[in-house]
Amino acid sequence: MLLEVRNLQVKYGDAPALWDATLTVGAGQIVSVVGPNGAGKSTLINAIAGLLRPSRGEVLIEGVDTARLPAYRVCDHGIAIVPEGRRLFVQMTVMDNLELGSYRAAAHASRQEALHAVFSLFPVLKERSNQISGSMSGGQQQMVAIARALMARPRLLLLDEPSLGLSPAVVEDMFRIIRTINERGVAVLLVEQNITKALELAHHAYVIEDGRITTSGDPALLLNDPQIREAYLGV
Fold first, then answer.
1. What is the set of domains in the chain, with CATH numbers?
2. Helices 111-121 and 168-183, packing angle to 10 deg
3. Who wins on pLDDT, 182 or 230?
4. Residue 220: which residues within 8 A CB-CB, separation 6 or more?
5. Taking the CA of residue 79 as centre, how many other CA atoms within 13 Å lie in the half-sphere pointing to its CB?
6. What is d(CA 28, CA 182) in angstroms, rounded to the nearest whole number?
7. What is the pLDDT of residues 94-137, one digit of tens each?
8. Less Cβ crowding at N or C end of the chain, within 10 Å?
9. Taking the mean position of all CA atoms in its chain, how far away is CA 140?
């Protein structure tokens, strides 16, 4: 198993934000984690990435527990994250942002190959490689954020709310690109409030509420579950 999260608990101070979360992502899979705002989705993905230290539990990457490693060491195990809000270096160019994504020695050695791959996904970034990233549209900035993560040559890409703040047309493009990334051999763990899109894209899905994973299973079945449709889709 590429990623296995076991009984993960995260606290902010004394307040638990995530309770005994358990999930898996296999090689080549897209796994979606859906739920309402504030349910613990970002806490989960940040703990997997090493940005938060869990108080209990394990994060196993091909059997190696990385739960208490710093984020840069987690990246060495083939994990890259696209954080909520993109978090670009907005005063730097597109190319500068992309090159920062390949700081790992293994990724640096194949930087040109990685650039070719991300420019084939996002041709507009090649055209605008010298543009200041903060001057770009929201959709283009999200492209830069995803491309920067891919420059690390990850085996597992963590995506935190990639559709947030984007127009419907751009959201369609973004989910098409995520599928293409997966088809190129990168597993994806997707945290997303757009439940319909997230479930349509995924091979497996989890529902998180109030810091607990409450349901998991086949995304098509979850999408047609009356309780989920009423709670999250309003139908």
1. 1-78+156-165+187-235 (3.40.50.300), 81-153 (no CATH)
2. 140
3. 182
4. 199
5. 31
6. 7
7. 999 999 888 766 666 677 888 989 999 999 999 999 999 989 99
8. C
9. 17
- pLDDT tens-digit series, residues 127-168: 999 999 989 998 899 999 999 999 999 999 999 999 888 888
pLDDT at residue 61 is higher than 60:
yes
H or E stretch at 215: strand 212-217
Distances in Å between the alpha carbon of 35 and those of 10, 156, 210, 228?
A: 17, 21, 9, 10
CA distances from 106 to 75, 152, 201, 218 (A): 11, 8, 30, 35
Q: How many CB atoms sit inside 10 A of residue 234's CB?
A: 6
User: What residue type is 103 in one-letter code?
Assistant: Y
Return the axis-axis angle of helices 138-150 and 168-183, rounded to nearest 10°. 10
